[in-house]
Design brief:
Blueprint lengths: L16 H14 L4 E11 L2 E12 L3 E3 L21
Antiparallel strand pairs: 1-2, 2-3
Length: 86
């Protein structure tokens, strides 16, 4: 997350994810971008229901945002695509 949206490491200490989620929600609201928080979804694998869980933010009904806390991002060449929810 950009530091100007959520200073997640202000003062050298990371904030809990709920603080960063709240900061992002405020920024979306200020920009007039529709969003929903902690949206429950059904998870399926090969046509079978395997459970349910929330996604952090659903932006404009189309973009799923999952916030993750990391110490630092690896160089781009070593990044792997994350899991997909269908």
């Amino acid at each position: 997350m950009r530091r100007d949206v959520c200073p997640c490491e202000a003062g050298g200490r990371p904030h809990v994810m709920s603080v960063c989620e709240e900061a992002l929600a405020v920024e979306l609201k200020l920009r007039g971008i529709p969003y929903r928080r902690q949206v429950p979804i059904a998870v399926q694998d090969n046509g079978f229901s395997v459970g349910e869980g929330p996604i952090d933010l659903l932006v404009d009904g189309a973009l799923v945002v999952e916030l993750k806390a990391v110490g630092a991002l690896p160089p781009p060449a070593s990044r792997k695509p994350g899991p997909r929810v269908l």
